[in-house]
Records
---
Amino acid sequence: MDDRHAIENYLLTGAEEDFCALFEAVYPRVRRYFLLRGMEVGEAEELAQDVMVIVYQRAGEVREKEFFTGWLFKVAKNELARFWRRRQARRRIAEMEPLDDELAEMLLTEMEVAGSSDFVEWVSYLDPAERDIIILRFVEELSYEELAVALAIPIGTVKWRLFNAKKKLAPIIKASLPTAARRFN
Amino acid sequence: MTHLFSEEEWNDYIEGRIDDETRDRIEAHIIGCLSCWEFHERMATATRALVVCGAGMRVAFALQDRRLNAGLRAVFAKINEAEAAKLDQPLRAIQQRLDALAAVMAPMCGSQTATKALRAAAQVSPACSLELVSEDNWTPFLTSLKTIADVMCGETGARLVWERGQS
């Protein structure tokens, strides 16, 4: 079942089994968004699960199914903001649980991928709002309309922000990838 | 550096979402404007690089089935926890109100007697027992307690119990 069908089915029925299909479609995307926003794997998964709980409880509020993905990332963005606020408020050192071997291996793989990725390096030069729009557009492939819902801004502002973020990245991409840049031409 | 065109028009042109008329205007301009041509090339290259690397990110962060299932189990555990907390909420609220009544009576008649008074009031009210006191049968329970408190703590004490029970 593709993502669109999974979303449509759940919004139509609200049934638990349809939620499972929806979960399979969108949880990896939300988790990836948090990872690309610089969170650690455990935090990203915890937060992505919180987003899915909100989806389970409140997806009925989405009036138009075409905008579900935009709404989903709006929820994710709000949860991320809440997370940073809580973290700033706490500012304490928590004891870490030891990692099991499987998770440790997965973390290593993902961190290696992220660490060596051009994309992650490029977005690190952007401010958080620019990073959001670039990740949501080029990794999560949100349409302009979905971006407008996710970021709660008009479509004109979406285009303006995308343009400016790309303008900022253009010389960085050119400088960091002299050989690969030719590949993209 | 946008010359005759807005940021939105440039963005739409580079992403191939522009209407024919604006596209023709931009192309007619960049043919004769070297700086705009170079700017367009830089932006187009950056856009293509982002598209290619964005696709790479989707593959790199793909999730194994086992982690996906663990995530789903965790979500259902959180949903169940939230629903259980919602069900417990009225019970906890009643318990807090009973504790508050006991706290008002204890200085006047002792804590054990206060607890016994609460039990007795519940038994003679529609609740029949302290464990079954709820929002629905709260007022008759409180009325019974006030009658008992009147005897044990006097009129002022009984009024205090009544007022506390209504807050």
---
Amino acid sequence: MRVALFVTCVNDLMFPATGRAVVRVLERLGHTVEFPAAQGCCGQMHANSGYRAEALPLVRNFVETFAGYEAVVAPSGSCVAMVREAYPRLAAGDPDLAAAVNEVVPRVHELSELLVDVLGVTDVGASFPHRVTYHPTCHGLRTLRLGDRPLRLLRAVRGLDLVDLPGAEECCGFGGTFAVKNADVSSAMLADKCAAIRDTGAAYVAAADNSCLAHIGGGLSRQARLGSGAPVRAVHYAEILAGPEVHP
Amino acid sequence: MSGGAPGGTGAQRRRGDRRGHGNIVAPLPFPAAARRELGNPQLRANLRRATHTIRDRRARVVGETPDWAHLRAAGAAIKDDVLARLPELLEQFEAAATAAGATVHWARDAAEARALVTDLVRGTGSAEVVKVKSMATQEIGLNEALAEAGITVVETDLAELIVQLADDTPSHILVPAIHYNRRQIREIFADRMPGVDLDALTDEPAALAEAARRYLRDRFLNARVAISGANFAVAETGTLVVVESEGNGRMCLTLPETLISVVGVEKLLPTFRDLEVFLQLLPRSATGERMNPYTSMWTGVTPGDGPRALHVVLLDNGRTDTLADPVGRQALRCIRCSACLNVCPVYERVGGHAYGSVYPGPIGAILSPQLTGLDAGANRSLPYASTLCGACFDVCPVRIDIPQVLVHLRQRDVDARRGQPSPERMAMRALSWVMRDRRRYAAALRAARRGAAPLRLLTAGGEVRRLPWPLSAWTSSRDAPLPAARTFRDWWAERTAHGGREDGRDQG
């Protein structure tokens, strides 16, 4: 299958390894990845902060860039949730844009949706011999309803010891601009999430969103430096799926 | 919270002003109020224990209800029908209640409602009233108004009584004293409950309940006037319904001679039969019970049984304004169950007082600013008091899409302030301009990467420990990642130049 990668702006600049991992996983499975260079930001930060007028040009750019692809994949639960939930609402006043949105949206998938539902794969043939816990980020959990798709993919990774995260369904406290506008509450939520992660004894915490992971990883690294517990590394689950190949 | 005198100020009573007033205006911006509450570790421990207990109980009883999704949809549909036909149903209710012997009054706002009720109580000649727990009367600041008029108010719901004795304000819709643990409650009773038997008063729940029961028994038996709210008002029959757990409501609704019920106009249900849906939704969502212990229904007056005079005060206080917003109006479906408070990770950390309104938590963040208008007090800060995690929408028994309304209200707030200078809007505009064009976007990525290069040399692990304002709010508790040495699109371009597919050079 020919798959267009929507890498997302945060990953493009801050976490390119996640984008490379998606390319590696899909190519290993025999698919062709394309990267339409006109892509930018999905507009989530604008829309969720109340800047509808500023989000609309980004919606237009997205639907123009990805029109005509059979499948679009993004390694971000919240960006896919933005496209699927908010785009139809944002485009509602503009019939042409609404039609373009309706055309593109059903073909946009979060990585685990593409792998499990579209490509029918749970074993991507990777190995990762570490103890891992998984934090289901809010938009993946409650907007996209990813369910156990990421967990099924991780369970099939050789050597990976997947441990449950108590209170997994609770928000980590990131929330986009919330992390800065309500930094104290955000930090209080983060402290509880980090404690739950450390208590699992995992070496890695995986998730489907690098923005949430930057918040969680930043908290874990700060706390480890200040002496509370062993460092736990935050990693996008795509990078685990791109781990060393165990069978050709 | 701002109670205000009965009758309100001139501005509040301005002709044509339909905005809500009362204890629904946050005096402090949410981040500042939240910081104050976060400084109280006992509060956080109390809240965590209490919210998780109710949350788990709710999940259990909802999980065993096979048609829950259908019940929720039915609840939402019935309430939407009410909101679409509100004027007609209100008149139907008024006619039915009046025919059954009730007197129906209309209050445009909190001030009118306070004045109406105060006059009604004065008219009875009684100087004391007993109260059933009621959000509408908390909203309008009724207790403060009655006290100013020299009338003694006795809250008879256990948690409301605790809050009243402590001279505090409620911090939860259903469990107003959720911020106290039983040791603190014992102290409040010991210090402030008239005639309490200190020898028998331990911090055992049974001992605390017994103390309240003894204190309240005399009040029930002597009360000539009671004040209540209502969970539902049936338009077809003129019936009012109160759902409760302790039986104090039943006492107040049946023993006194005069009963005054203050009811928000959105509490209507079209028919008696509609109660079937809501009496399943409410107790499961509120207390995690299949059925609540006491459900009282009354229709007008019945000679020889119950109150001889029934007054119903129908309260607008900003509800009509809220109804005018096609996205925001779904907040009026709310049946005050509190399920959204109990699952909210923000509420769990800061408690109800941080919201500065009798309606705290996710529903409060969309209800208070709509009832009062976004420019009242610090209410425009409330829609930002959420990570948009969506846990509230998942549990709402009438399917209020709270995250959608939060974003909508942020949009209204941003649009209302378009004329004023704002660094945030400048940044949002600039980012939007850059990101909709591939050349501008690529150039910006290169600039960000170059800008970060010297930082990368200075930080050992590629993590930043302190950033300048406004990102200092991030690094107060978190290290920050740096832009990567090579962006994804640069890696992709080099890879394509090398013939594409895996080239072993992906360690950027």
